[in-house]
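User: Structure please.
Assistant: Input sequence and predicted structure:
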Amino acid sequence: MADIGNIIVSEKNGIPVKVSDLAQVQIGYAPRLGQFGYKGQNEAVEGVILMRVGEQAQVILKRVEEMTKTLNDTILPPDVKVVPYYDRQDLIQETTKTVERNLLRGMLLVLVILGLFLFSARTALIVAVTIPFALLFSFICLDWRHIPANLLSIGAIDFGIIVDGSVVMVENIFRELADRYGTEYNLLDVIRAAAGDVERPIFYAIAVIIAGYLPIYALTGPSGRLFSPMADTMSFALLGALLCALTVLPVLCAFFLRKHVHEPEVRIFEWVKDRYGAVLGWCLNHRSVTVALALAVFGSSLLLIPFIGGEFMPHLDEGALWVRATTPYTISFEEASKLSPQIRNILASFPQVTTVANELGRPDDGTDSTGFFNNEFYVGLKPYSDPAWSGAISEKPQLIEAIQKKLATFPGIIFNYTQPAEDAVDEAETGLKSALAVKIFGPDLNTLEQKAAQVREILQKTPGITEITVVRELGQPSLTITPDREKLARYGLNVGDVNTLIETAMGGQAATQVIQGERQFDLVVRMQEPFRNDENAIRNLLIATPDGQYLPLSQFCDIKVDSGASFIYREANQRYIGVQFSVEGRDLAGAVGEARDKVANAVQLPIGYHLDWGGEYKEYLASRQQMKVIGPLTVVLILMILFALYGNFKFPVIIFFSVLVTEPVGGLLALYLTHTNFSVSSLLGFVALMGVAVQTSVILYSFINKLRLEGMDIQTATLQASLLRLRPIMMTALVACFGLLPAAMSTGIGSDSQKPFAIVIVGGLASRLLLSTFLAPVLYALVARDGDTLKV
């Protein structure tokens, strides 16, 4: 600093004028932009690690942990440590545990169903070989395509769907061998013939299931990124299961079903089969009544649709909270920093909380434009299995309610509650600090503020909409300096001269840089505090004219305190103002849809202004439009595959008619009873269910055609085939249903996103089994004719 002070600025009569004669040289500090507090420490340093797009989280997190250990052990001083307080690995581990539990329970249920229906441990274990084979095949393909496994892709695996083709293959071989019990036969010939009877229906049935997943690739945006891995995993697994069913399982049957293949009489199943035969006989004799009853049940289920809400995606419980405190926009750093420890202490006082940290203002890197009015708190929570959750507060919503009661004592502060990762996604999606927002676009800030106030009033009166905040853009006290160009011209000055004076005096101007080792610092020239701390001091700033005069700034400019803009938000090259809000106690589509209609009727926008309902609601609308394309596309793909199987459109059409009449009944009823909203996850469940539900009809119709080719009439072939294929039809439906039952009932961290998908498939398969076992034979008998082209 002494060297800088001794720099010669000028010389007067042989006397040098140094920098130290004109200014005070000292180490300064950049303006404080924010503060990070951790637990009981008001001052700490926070670092955020970002992962590159396309990288795998587990791999990156392991590298970060290794580098953190290296920093703490060998580089940092003993009293300085890097302490992770939010680790994504914790969330990954919790969700992985949930998925593992669901998969294990689903696998056990599938094995139980196989054992009960096949009446043979050997046969059940042969079918079960499909599960590791298909998974290994799928994981090899995923690794080959560099696709990481994630929550949705692995959690959506249904072992029941995977083994369906194997069930049909092994059951048919088992039945043919059991029918020959006590007689002489060639084992390989019987197995070859039994496998040949069902290999074509199995191939096309699995092709139809895969077709139900293929349209997922047509999804774009967040929906596509979320669910494409699920389509990858299930498609590869089903291909592996098909390969296993057609090649490996017949060989295993030849090894392990050599002797004593006898089907014991199970009274419960025989009773069910007898009752089913009696009721089916009545249905075949009263076909129109049966179809009418099925349509009545289907129509009744459609009445549930208005009572089921809508949303983009269920919110994943991250096991943590992110609390945002919004204070008045004019609050200073000194006042805002006093509130931070008070709020941290309140949050930490709850026994369910482990860690509390807060971010006040914005970081120094310019990645955020917020001010001291924005204070965000990370709240780490104990696992839900911890005894701390066994008291009066046993659920996360109850904890939020209890926290809000304590924080409500801070007047003028608005508190919003979300989750760490969810908050980051919401901010990236909307550009604001909220998952839901109305953006009003237009050129004039005053008009935008007026219209935002009108929208806020309407939202406040809409049931279900809470935590409403207008992103204030005006009201910032500003010192406005307006140059008088004519006066400046009289003295030979330009507006640029005034700008340079103000910039240097108020904000400072970097004259050069000081280098210390590898570090560089700006050398800033700035007016001292007494000459820039109030309006009068700024009025008296002297500006040099070309003729050597020094005149006060007030002589050339109109200087006054005015209300100016604190923020100006822009998107797509347009100004906008945001109205942030949340939805509680009501479905997203219903609440925002009602508010949207009210705003459209009550708020009149001038020409050049328009509204945009952004965030999660916008994604919901986009995904709904995409589903209008995906649904018909799935229908077309399945019909084409069925046409290739049967060689006509008659049987494919009635198969699809039976699916459309029976599948939605259970799915809609399950959503209604579990209070689950329509979402991308549940709608994709309906789409995937189309392929799964077709399989039972394919199994039945192919066998009816086989009996007809052997000489039976339509009525007899339909009845006999329905009775003979009752077991594989029940097995394929039940194993698929029970395979996803644990996921449908799961409540652990990570279950939220896959739960609607599983609920729809479980409910849809249940209704499909109960209704289609009667409707499918009746429809076949209605349309079948003696001159039909029959393919097995």
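The chain is about 55% helix and 15% strand.
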